[in-house]
Amino acid sequence: MNPPVPSRLGLTAPVGGHARIPKSATPRVPPNLTDYDAACRDFSWAGARALLDGLPDGRGLNIAHEAVDRHAAGPRADRAALRWIGRAGERAFTWRELHDETSRVANALQGLGLGPGARVFVLAGRIPELYLAVLGALKARCVVCPLFSAFGPEPIAMRLEIGEADALVTTEALYRRKVEALRPRLPRLRHVVLVGEAGAATAVRDTLDWQRLMQDASTEFVIPRTEPEDMALLHFTSGTTGRPKGAVHVHEAVVMHNVTGCYALDFHPDDVFWCTADPGWVTGTSYGIIAPFTNGVTNLVVEAEFDAQGWYDILERERVSVWYTAPTAIRMMMKLGSAALAGRDLSALRFMASVGEPLNPEAVLWGVEAFGMPFHDNWWQTETGGIMIANYAAMDVKPGSMGRPLPGISATILRRDETGGVREVSGPMQEGELALKAGWPSMMRGYLKEEVRYAKCFVGEWYLTGDLAMRDEDGYFWFVGRADDVIKSSGHLIGPFEVESALMEHPAVAEAGVIGKPDPMAGEIVKAFVALKPGFEAGETIRRELLGHARKRLGAAVAPKEIDFRANLPKTRSGKIMRRLLKARELGLPEGDISTLESDER
Ligand code: ATP
Ligand code: MG
């Protein structure tokens, strides 16, 4: 389990069996969470709720009020709230402007008869109208579901059907390419609002024009009473392990979005924050829209897709101070090496975080080498609505660990027994299922139309996450693998993450995905699929070298027995390696739901 400790990075000697990157002794700004234990001790949900305003006159709690209206009415009104870098232009909105534009949206939706509970889907690339539509719909108390714009027609129609969409806000181009032909299948879909190319007007049959609606709508909108338990957001999971589930979230989730922005992402009033996730995935909504706005920081939105040099340009030019990204992107940057960063002025950058997949220790260390600071891994799910376990600015980082639970969050490691009950493991570094004590504000309130699947997530007071993990003697959590992906080989339980991380340490390896392949003797053997970095050629020599490296690093029982090379590994569109697909293909089994599959190179 111990990651290697390259001395050049100034790591402290392993303490309690794990290397540590010490917290900064001279932070540029004092972190919001300075003393983890004290913060946990003193934490209360009432206190977290008190960081928000609530709707005036005790009318309840509404995400959009906390994100927009309260800042528009306060000292931050004329500061930059949203800074948009488009492919062919830029736009910026102050909180006052965001208030006016989102009020227009709310009025327009209300004018269409879309009131409380109406389901408004948004299908668009990262354009300003997406952000206005989401926040405006929340003001009107509609339920919002942002969809990833690169989905094909079928996954889009399926989600609109399951989610019982009443309205869809999309672009003219996406509508023509992906929705128009399937519209007859969607009788419930009453309104389609189209944003024209570069915001221009549109005139497509059976649709409404965004620009016209906005022009005619007032910039004043009083958010009606909103109960904290009113449904606010619908988010589909990534579909990594099977058919995507629609997780239901309520307005009260904003308490979690806000406090995690403060503690886990360490937002400060002058920050420029960049979350690289698309709002079609929960990270892109909770942290690409809500948390930065509620915390009053400038939210940078970049329309273009990943490109390492382009991203470095943005970090430098926009003086990004807090950056939230994902392991896949980090691994792609690592592929190019830190030389690509030479000569750049990234002096504004002070905190980097990652989510979505296990972050290999090698990637955390590369952060130090390339940016002078580690990536702070954090863990959460669509179902949890907000960050649950994190590495904090004022805490030593143990590369390879997801960190410690947020104040207010109680996490543990459980094992199921034969009677269907669960018990907590005793002692450190014991594998089991990661579980969270139910009841935090952004916990999903259900899987849409899947009550049985939802009920199965809970045993007593615990929500079971479906991920296997361990907790060390200091309370840091270590990801082992998804319960579905864990390999049972000759009596050993092997987490794919450990094997993948060991392979990643080899200079030739860009990415690795590990599965269990059925074997008559061992039950399963460990098989790895590897994508090589540029300049390395797949073949027997490198295969033997990697097998040897893994055996030395992991021991013969855990090291892969077979390694195959792939140009790319199959991933979800949110960048997660689909091990179930590697396995299905290896075994010639049906591929299952692949609606979220992105790269498809075998
Ligand atoms: P599905 O539930 O449809 O199979 P999914 O679980 O990938 O898809 P998400 O909710 O987007 O959908 O992802 C949450 C999962 O991502 C977690 O349960 C975990 O397996 C993985 N994950 C997220 N962050 C981390 C992390 N920091 N380390 C390890 N795994 C992570
Ligand atoms: Mg999941």
Could you characterize what this model shows?
There is one protein chain. By secondary structure, the chain is of the alpha/beta class. Helix content is 28%, strand content 24%. It folds into three domains: 7-44 and 252-482, Rossmann fold, CATH 3.40.50.12780; 61-245, ANL, N-terminal domain (Rossmann fold), CATH 3.40.50.12780; 487-587, ANL, C-terminal domain (GMP Synthetase, Chain A, domain 3, 2-Layer Sandwich). The chain is built from 17 helices and 30 strands. It has a 15-stranded mixed sheet that branches. Helix 7 (172-179) links the parallel strand 7 (167-171) and strand 8 (191-195). Helix 4 packs across helix 5. The two termini are 30 Å apart. Mean pLDDT is 94; it is low at 1-16. The structure holds adenosine-5'-triphosphate (ATP) and magnesium ion (MG). Adenosine-5'-triphosphate (ATP) is lined by residues 237-242, 244-245, 355-359, 377-379, 381-382, 402, 465, 467, 479, 482, 574, 576.
Task: Compose a concise summary of this entry.
By secondary structure, the protein is α/β, with parallel strands linked by helices.
Give the tally of β-strands: 30
- Which segments are poorly predicted (pLDDT under 50) over 5 or more consecutive residues? 1-16
Q: Approximately what portion of the residues adopt beta-strand conformation? A: 15-25%
Shape: globular
